[in-house]
Amino acid sequence: MAEENFEFSWENPEYRKTYWHTCSHVLAQAVKRLYPEVKLAIGPSIDTGFYYDMDSPFAFTPEIMDKIEDEMRKICKEKLKLERFELPRAEAVKFMEEKEEPYKVELINDLPADAVISFYKQGEFTDLCAGPHIDSTGRIKGNAIKLTACNASYWRGDAKNKSLQRIYGVAFPKKEQLDEYLQKLEEAKARDHRKLGRELGLFMTDELVGRGMPMFLPKGYTVWRILENYIRDKEIKLGYQHVLTPCVGTVDLYKTSGHWDHYQQNMFPAMEVEDEMYVLRPMNCPHHMRIYANRPHSYRDLPIRIGEIAHDFRYEASGTLKGIERGRHFCQNDAHLFCTPEQIKDEVSKVCDLIFATYKDFGITDYRCVLSLRDPEDKEKYHQDDEMWNTAESALREVLVELGIQFTEEIGEAAFYGPKLDVNVVPAVGAEYTLSTCQLDFCLPMKFDLKYIDADGAEKTPVVLHRAILGSLDRFMAYLIEETMGAFPAWLAPVQAKFLPVTDRANEYCEKLAGQMEEQGFRVEVDDRNEKIGKKIREAQIEKIPYMLVVGDRDMENGTVSPRHRADGDLGAMSAEAFMKLLREEVDSKTRK
């Protein structure tokens, strides 16, 4: 639609959305020209381009996608005007029935009684659509269009409905922008933690085990344990007390906490055991509330910091599952801090200090802080207590301001029980997502009737901070894999050094030195296969091992090793002691290379 005073600028997000929406219509028109038997479902714009769901009697192969792309370019060159018109419901239904578009008929019939039913026409093609659109297909740069994927989808997102095919695409006003975007897609494929995890033997998935249930292999679990020990040791130094709680809980536990009312759609179905109903836990807060309630507390006991590396389970839709970044089973670096209202600022400050110190160790510099608030226009999904929400949001906002932490505010992103500080990282590829969080909760302590005796002898209700520094260890590890492309720094690498004997004569010497290094706590391997040294080096490089220790006859004579760093190359011969000192310094300082 030609919009009056519409800003035709790519910098205008509304224009990008409208541009991509029009591209989806061009896609549908191209398909109908080439394959009239295909039935159209819906075709919106999305954050990264556009898609169209279609019911096709054949699969959209790469060859067919190329033909559709070519036809889309022709439509752009035809400079077809987009014209909007409206029809009464009965006429609209008849119009789509005559075009044999059953999905459009269903959409029209499901519209509210007072809905305006509009269509957009471009050349011979007309589609049911609310709009808006740009005024002409000529505004779309034909050689900057790319159909990027075709996946299965369900009509209206319901697995009970018919399976459709969803063609994804992207388009830009300049071909250079498309080329840059496609280059980023290739980089994203190279960095994809699922691909790297498989190639490096870090983790696996198995359909028989279940979707969203990744299994860590020895090397991957080594990295996982390093992360676990790293954050637990830091927390212990800060006065955290670690606990171990069960992976299930009664339905009554989650009814008390409010999760049953506000979070049930993300939980696995309940299981009946001896007339009691149990569920796999989606989070650990209720268990930790009960631990606090296990004995009386004085204000002198507070703050109490309860931590756990906890196994949790959430029923995520299969389409959202992504390796170890988003699964149905994961382990949270979880903790709950029970404190007095006067201690909120100090505890939030310490949590933030821990987050930023951790990010420094891992070299995370590209992130932003977000104050996630309740949506006052849509309170249904939150605990109903306006006074509590106003108090909690004001308290957290004031603390962040006092601490000098730069943040933006986002409405509707709070937990159901309280506002939170989210720290969102910007990965090397893809959209930002939350790694760390600190949530202020006045709600659950009241629901569980938690108390402490204040200095005046009166019973008071503590405040709880829910916080996760690494978030889930699984997601944090996925982030590290993609940031490093699997080339972990030596302190994190599952194998820190690999001995590469040039001949079989050096095998015994290498085994002896490897044993000495293992006694010092290093993770080493010996490649004693009867292969040429060049092949051993190449394969160790592919495995992204930080150090390759080439050992030949001269090294055995001189009592040396000849280390090669995966990035720096040959470091020259040195004694085993000198190399262990070099590696120890690198590990202890958490050097990133």
The average pLDDT is: 91
Spatial strand order of the main sheet: 11-15-16-23-20-19-17-18
Query: Roughly how many Å apart are the termini?
Result: 53 Å
C-alpha Rg (nearest Å): 29 Å
Strand fraction band?
Answer: 15-25%
Structural class: alpha+beta
Indicate the low-confidence ranges by residue numbers: 1-5
**Contiguous helical run count:** 18
Label the overall shape.
globular
Number of strands: 29
Characterize the largest beta sheet: strand count, sense, and whether it forms a barrel.
8 strands, mixed
What's the arrangement of secondary structure elements?
Elements: H1 13-34, E1 39-40, E2 45-46, E3 49-55, H2 62-77, E4 83-86, H3 89-98, H4 102-109, E5 118-122, E6 125-128, E7 145-154, E8 163-171, H5 175-191, H6 193-199, E9 203-204, E10 215-216, H7 218-237, E11 241-242, E12 248-250, H8 251-257, H9 259-262, E13 271-273, E14 276-280, H10 285-292, E15 304-313, E16 329-339, H11 344-361, E17 367-373, H12 386-403, E18 408-411, E19 420-425, E20 433-441, H13 443-447, E21 452-453, E22 459-460, E23 463-472, H14 473-484, E24 497-501, H15 507-519, E25 524-526, H16 533-542, E26 547-551, H17 553-558, E27 560-565, E28 569-570, E29 574-575, H18 576-588
Parallel strand pairs: 11-15, 17-18, 24-25, 24-26
Antiparallel strand pairs: 1-3, 2-3, 3-8, 4-5, 5-6, 7-8, 9-10, 12-14, 13-14, 15-16, 16-23, 17-19, 19-20, 20-23, 21-22, 26-27, 27-28, 27-29
